């Protein structure tokens, strides 16, 4: 299987490396600056699940350099989706399916409209990782999960191929037959987790210590559950409780990628995540006061 990774940040580089480790052919389609960094320093993974060094990573800066691919692993930030679209289109025209693992929900319909519904799989991941100053991956969480599944019947073959790859991969890959539900569960979780950590500028430990602060995260979970229900996705109070327990079971120093980006003075995905939830809610006549408040608190830090 030939997999093209678009977006070789911590997430894309980690999963791309694990795909290669499992025997897939992997090409990293990156910007010029990132290409130079990888050429100068290599692409290594330091992980709680075992280290891995990608030997002679295949790097390109334009989709025209790729003849064909089976899968595009799309792991850009939400605000880079528009800029990546031309490259993704070129690869889809050459026969690739697309597995987007962006946070949020809005990007799925955008990709389906641009690429055709049959081209776009459902995907999400759970991992805490960052890049160090050499551009190497530092994976610190006990989990590194990739969930994928078909959104259309035509995607059965590529999903089965991914399931075969999962048997050799040093990641937890889950082939879900209810991927839309899984996408909304992740959206609920990440909106609360990234919102509360970024707005308070704190990791999860101190947030859990104060019931008044943790209450805000709980209310965002409840609001996102109600939003999913408006879109006929059956998130329940059980799902909310599971998300709360996941927060409390994290390492005290654990935090979200958005909070990590705030710490580094990088652009934040707040409009893609929280802004997207507010747009979806407005379309259904639903108010999300806690989500809106956290959105307002993070907004001044959105653009580095």
TrEMBL record:
Pfam families, alphabetized: ApbA (PF02558), ApbA_C (PF08546)
Name by which UniProt lists this protein: 2-dehydropantoate 2-reductase
Chain segments annotated as transmembrane: none
The keyword NADP is annotated on this UniProt entry: yes
Lineage: superkingdom: Bacteria
Enzyme Commission number(s): 1.1.1.169
Matching NCBIfam families: apbA_panE
Keywords for the protein's UniProt record, in alphabetical order: NADP, Oxidoreductase, Pantothenate biosynthesis
Species of the source: Virgibacillus alimentarius
Reaction equation(s) it catalyzes: (R)-pantoate + NADP(+) = 2-dehydropantoate + NADPH + H(+)
Pathway the protein acts in: Cofactor biosynthesis; (R)-pantothenate biosynthesis; (R)-pantoate from 3-methyl-2-oxobutanoate: step 2/2
Family the UniProt entry places it in: Belongs to the ketopantoate reductase family.
InterPro entries in the record: 6-PGluconate_DH-like_C_sf, 6PGD_dom2, ApbA, KPA_reductase, KPR-Related, KPR_N, NAD(P)-bd_dom_sf
